[in-house]
Structure formats: structure tokens, C-alpha cells
Amino acid sequence: MKRKLWAAWLLTALLLPWGALAQETFDGSVVAGETVAVTAPFGGTVTALEIREGQLVSAGDTVATLSTTKVWATQDGTVSGVFAQEGDSAEGTVLYISPVSRYTIACTLSKAHEDVDTYYVELGEKVYIRCVKDGSHRAEGIITGVDGASYTVTTTAGEMYLQESAYIYRSPDYDTDSRLGTGVVQRAAEIAVSGTGSILKMYVSDGDTVERGQLLFETVTGSLAAMSSTGSAEIATDSAGVVTQVQCSLGQQVQQGATLAVLAPRSGYQIAFTIPEDLLGQVAVGDTVAIYFNWNEDKSQPAVGQITSISYVSDQEEPDSVSSEAMYTGYATFTPGDEVRLGMTVTVVPLSDET
Q1: pLDDT tens, 49-107?
Q2: Which range marks the domain in which residue 83 is found?
Q3: Rg of the Cα trace of the chain?
Q4: Torsion of CA 289, 290, 294, 296, to 10 degrees
Q5: In 3D, which of 314, 315, 351, 321 has the Cα closest to residue 334?
Q6: Residues 298, 345: one domain?
Q7: CATH no. for residue 125?
Q8: CB environment 214-250: b (16+ within 10 A), e (fewer)
Q9: Are 118 and 177 within one domain?
Q10: Domain count across the chain
Q11: Between 20 and 30 A from 280 (CA), which of 14, 24, 183, 192?
């Protein structure tokens, strides 16, 4: 019976203007009862910042974008083995590329035409090749390495036999006075491709044909071993709430685990209100309170909350005088409406349960 009377009294009390209640009132404001940190899942430079303080964000919204390191193909060829996947370390061999050029030729200046021009070869120079035996095997190539009197030719067209000896010429007519030396035909080695950090995104698969300059994969700093890679450098929030702090800026280098932003979920909003020392006896943990928002001129529809805690330490750590009144802080939970914002001022009115 008493519960029914209390419910009827509460309904009546909430319909009355708050000033008509014969209770003490307390000044307060809306505060964040909890916060959620949005952290960097990997390291990098902030290349885009999508939020600002005071912004309301939803779960899945992008907070920031971090830079990545892109790894490109250095030669045309075919991907011949992928040994890592997204989320793995890129420090070892991630994949191999079998080059289009099937042969390399380890060359020296031996038997080169005795002329200053033929004794000097240039990196990237196009050359012409034919076998020493009978000249029936011919190819074209590019000088891809020079080391003193030795140099390396990578073929770009034609057919040769492995381990056969070949002459190298500057002229397509194979003129003796353009001969640059001799070499031995070898199989072109597969190209091992690695990176640094962890693989964020993989763009090729085993057997794919790639061209020089094609993007193979992207890496980021830090380890992704404990998490599944999203394949994206955009950092999204898992929680909805109001941005209370932005702790990064454009161009800033951030480490893995660094806090990018702090959110206050609306579901965790609380009311913090000030209690003078002489009124501590008027409120207690568990009490029901009416919460009137000062921006709202319609005082007839307050929110209802419950006191969850009252501080045991005065907010006045150093009173101005012995006569200064000590003030304490109480906290009350409530269900915020869409119009409620952090920092709004309120008036808190305790509701007695006596009938």
C-alpha cells in the first residue's frame, strides 16, 4: 500500500513546479560519467583528422587516417609465392617475383674491343648478345649492374642457353669494334620482396602478373599480431559519444596504442551537484531526485535520477577563512534525452519518500 502511495506522490510531485516543492535545491551540471579512448591500432603520421571537440560521433565513424608505407614491384614479372598475409610481420620475405627476363649474364671486359669507349659501360645501357659457339642464339638486354671491370646484363628479349658463353655488343649489327666483353648466361634469380612493420593490406596473390611500379602491399609500424587487419588506414571508433578531447593533430607522428581522442558515451552522462556542509543530512546515496534543466523554461517535466555517490572530501581544499563553508559533490544517474549536452546547468531537488 505504501508503494502505491509513494508512486502517486512522485507523479504528483513531478507535475508541480519545482519551486513549489518544500525541499532544498542544489546546483549542478551534466558531466561525463565515463569516457572511452580511441587509440591508434598501429603507428604512423596523421594524414587526416575527421573530428573536433564537442562533436557527436556514431560507432563506426572515422576519427583519423594514418600514413602507410607502400611497397612497389621493382620489375615486371609473376608473383611466385606469397608467404605472409594481412596482419603478419613484413620483416622477412613477404613474396617473390619471377622476372619476365629469364636470364642474367655475368660479364667481364675480357675480349672487348681494345678501345676506351668499349672499356667503359654504363648502367641502363642497351646491349646485344649472341652465343660464342656459332652465334645462333641471340638476345637483347640492359646493363643492370656495374662493378669495376665486371658488369651484369639482364635480358629483355631473345633466347639463350643456360651456362653458355656469350659476346656482348653495343651495336645491333654485332660489329667487332662494338664488342664490350664476354659473359656466362645464368638463370635470372627470383626477386625477394620484404618490408618493415606489419602488413596492413595485400594487393596481389600467388600467380598474379605484375608490372614495374605496381603496388604490392602496404605496411604500418607496430605489430598487428594481436588483432585482425581491417586493410584500412582509417581509424574508426567502436563507440558512440561526444568528443571531449582530441589528442592528435595533422602531421603528428603517433605510436601504436597512442590515444587519438576521448569520447563520452551519452549513456554514461551523470549529474554532478554541489552540497553545502550543513545540507549533507538532506541527501543520501540511493535517494531519488528531480533534475530541472535551467535552459528549459518548462519546469513541469523534470528528469528523474538517483544519487549514486557523495564525496567524502570537501571541494574546498584550502578555505579562505575558518568561517568558509565546506562544499561536497554528489553524483546522480539519469536517462539523458537527445537535447541533453555536457556542461548544461541543472537544479537538483531531492524527492522525499515519506507519505
Answers
A1: 999 999 999 999 999 999 999 999 988 899 999 999 999 999 999 999 998 878 999 99
A2: 69-98+191-220
A3: 38
A4: 160
A5: 351
A6: yes
A7: 2.40.30.10
A8: eebbbbbbbebeeeebeeebebbbebbbbbbebebee
A9: yes
A10: 4
A11: 14
